[in-house]
Amino acid sequence: xxxxxxxxxxxxxxxxxxxxxxxxxxxxxxxxxxxxxxxxxxxxxxxxxxxxxxxxxxxxxxxxxxxxxxxxxxxxxxxxxxxxxxxxxxxxxxxxxxxxxxxxxxxxxxxxxxxxxxxxxxxxxxxxxxxxxxxxxxxxxxxxxxxxxxxxxxxxxxxxxxxxxxxxxxxxxxxxxxxxxxxxxxxxxxxxxxxxxxxxxxxxxxxxxxxxxxxxxxxxxxxxxxxxxxxxxxxxxxxxxxxxxxxxxxxxxxxxxxxxxxxxxxxxxxxxxxxxxxxxxxxxxxxxxxxxxxxxxxxxxxxxxxxxxxxxxxxxxxxxxxxxxxxxxxxxxxxxxxxxxxxxxxxxxxxxxxxxxxxxxxxxxxxxxxxxxxxxxxxxxxxxxxxxxxxxxxxxxxxxxxxxxxxxxxxxxxxxxxxxxxx
Length: 423
Ligand SMILES: *Cc1c(COP(=O)(O)O)cnc(C)c1O
Prior knowledge:
This protein is an alpha/beta fold and 423 residues long. It has two domains: 210 residues, 3-Layer(aba) Sandwich (Aspartate Aminotransferase, domain 2); 136 residues, Aspartate Aminotransferase, domain 1, CATH 3.90.1150. It is built from 14 helices and twelve strands. The strands form two sheets. It has a seven-stranded mixed β-sheet with strand order 1-7-6-5-4-2-3, sandwiched between helices. The chain has a five-stranded mixed β-sheet with strand order 8-9-12-11-10, covered by helices on one side. Strand 4, helix 7 and strand 5 form a beta-alpha-beta unit. Helix 10 packs parallel to helix 14 and helix 12 crosses helix 14. The longest helix has 21 residues. The site of pyridoxal-5'-phosphate has 14 residues, from helix 4.
């Protein structure tokens, strides 16, 4: 049995458990849905109980077998956050989860927990703009350096990045991967990165592989099964799925999550109960939404590939046998997802004319919501990357990124068709 279908009682599929797992109605007047526990603090039954809860929370003694952390204060824990974490764990087959108030809070808290002054982060290129800023403008102030390897260069690129560091290769503490890469859908081999990480690990300081799985997860790619130590999500995207909430999550083993949770408690980067409740509501339809969007995206990608005003389409479902990217896709991905990017014939002016003509598809950044969204990476999400670097990554002035939603694909295609005609 696959890990992501791990049995919980008799029920084996996460989607069957999203409505109930981790919640006991009898603790809340029989309410079928978890109430929103809008409370900052929790009343202890006795002083002894308060003492005992703090002993566990602050690591003053080992937890007793099956003992759960008692409810103390909503920066440490809260029922909505805990139920959400229990449900998120099922998709990735993870032992532990921590949720955050944004994807960036998840990434920053994880980096701070894993890195020390002098350490190096190796990362795939391109990475999300906020991650790039953290790596090149904030972490250097704490003595942490970053070095990139092109996602499109595959495993050889990562090996070369280690070689180019020479003696400094011993300082690599984290390999941070975004796969598929935004916006070009380039794939990085997670298992190969995990193997390299093990080769470069020392007993006292392991090299951690962290995968930002926002684009395909938690349904179509499970990085922990391929040897990653931690999986990160911007839950703002597919997990939230309705473009109405900002949140993040990190998943992995208890050992990997323990220092991340401590950092979250002290930095105060956890999400609130209202956000957790919204995400639980979203998780009930996660599989429906992601399956529908993925199905629609195939129609849209096929339409674009055949259109005379479209020069190139980057879509995982179009990878061909014999392409090394196809081999990675076969091993690592369970579906092509719903992110497409494509180059129109022409340049920025033509791309803008097309974007301005869209009606049903909205011109906005972000992705993974129920509505289709289109944007221009070169001047929007990736505008802080130098133009030469953009071109080297495949971000041309004619490139448009499209997140396909759950609208009827005929309507999405009709809108794209009229916008391409207006170009
Ligand atoms: C959006 C995004 C983030 C940042 O998440 P926020 O929730 O906006 O903080 C990080 N990584 C990827 C791949 C993203 O798409």
